[in-house]
Amino acid sequence: MATKAKQRAGEGSRVDGERARAASSAASRVAITGACTYLGQRLIAALERDASCEHIVALDIARPLTARTKTRFVRLDLTHPDADETMAATLEADGITTLCHLAFLGFPSRSGAWAHELEAIGTLYVMNAAAAASVHKVVMSSTTMVYGPYPDNPNYLSEQHPMRGLRASRWVSDKVGAERELARLAKERADIITTSLRFAPVVGPAYKSLITKLLRRAALPRLMGFDPLMQFLHEEDAVAALLLAVRGDHPGPWNIVPEGVLYYSQVLKLGGKLPLPLPRVLAAPATTALWNLELLDMPGRFLDYFRYSFCADGSRAYETMGFSPRYSTRAALESFFAARSSPARAADLSEAS
Fold first, then answer.
1. Are 314 and 231 in contact (CB under 8 A)?
2. Is residue 317 a contact partner of residue 254, using CB atoms and an 8 Å limit?
3. pLDDT of 24 above 70
4. Strand 193-199 vs strand 252-256: parallel, antiparallel, or unpaired?
5. Comparing C-alpha atoms, which of 26, 27, 71, 63 is closest to residue 45?
6. Where are the domains of the chain?
7. 212 three-state secondary structure
8. pTM of the model
9. How do beta strands 137-143 and 98-101 pair?
10. What is the pLDDT of residue 58?
């Protein structure tokens, strides 16, 4: 149970500081939650080829397709009440030094209670297990959406900007909650390095999310009077940032964003999309009604991300972490749209996502 894992975490904090420090110089042993997600599978594939990584534990409800000789699969359901105990035992038994928490949904779920159990309560379990096992480092995937779409946002949001999220969206609120659980671990266990990678919306030939699903549509809503700036991170750059965080120690939150921005109107033009001008007063209720009827993939409350900018400042990651994105926002979108224009290519890539 969660209480037992927290008790073990308190004991570990007193005796395992030397073990955690020693881990930083040893060959890495990495555990990955959400091992079957796109990021999880690509990270496993990269670590299988990485001589500095000697062992991988894939934690998910199914075995990832990219698992090879280094990888041990352990079935784990983060919605199960004993998930933290199971995970802590696995982390200890396998001598895990780095825990990557990637078990997050790319789409809002129509089953809000289950999604909350997975992302919010599941993250609590992950942090309890990390503390109980005294891992050296926890790396978590996040999103720049945690800053929220607000009219008073600066043009570029730094990592110190408050995470205001989107109160009406549980999908976004649970991601803010996950960040706070990671911050709690950092506060309670100074010996454990905690890293949050706040990705700009990810696109690419194989990546699947709410954003990529919307961008595949022939027509997209355009709120009348609004044309926000947007950033899009290529899927390969997201994996590259994860590898940097696994291979080095980079505590704190990091904005992982590409160079360059585009206005939403430019995004529509680049993809050859038909803009559907909508007055704000009608857009939200109409979109919500279609969502409730399961005729649309996006709930109305999400429209604010197409109303106000939430672009992030990536200079800290460029200068300190050494993150150097290969794709600009424009190039990432061009890669995505080009793949979608070739059905055979898109089908091949979707099998690996």
1. no
2. yes
3. no
4. parallel
5. 71
6. 2-202+233-258+312-325
7. helix
8. 0.90
9. parallel
10. 99
DSSP letter, residue 170:
H
For residues 75 and 61, the answer to whether their CB atoms sit within 8 Å is: yes
pLDDT value for 15: 44
Where does residue 154 rank: exposed (0-12), middle (13-18), buried (19+ CB within 10 A)? exposed
Distance separating alpha carbons of residues 247 and 195, to the nearest angstrom: 12
Angle, CA 82 vertex, CA 79 and CA 86 arms, to 5°: 105
Beta strands in 76-158 (DSSP E): 98-101, 137-143
Contact 170, 298 (CB under 8 A): no
- Inter-residue contact 307 to 250 (CB < 8 Å): no
Q: pLDDT for 45-59, tens place per residue?
A: 999 999 999 999 999
Encoded tokens for 189: 């266990």
Q: Determine the average pLDDT of the residues in 162-191.
A: 96
- φ, ψ of residue 48 to 5 degrees: the values are -60, -30
Question: Could you say which DSSP state residue 201 is in?
Answer: P
**Phi–psi pair at 79, nearest 5 degrees:** -90, -5
Contact between 76 and 87 (Cβ < 8 Å): yes
Q: What is the Cα–Cα distance from 252 to 54, expressed in whole angstroms? A: 26
Q: What fold does the segment set 2-202+233-258+312-325 form as a domain?
A: Rossmann fold (3.40.50)
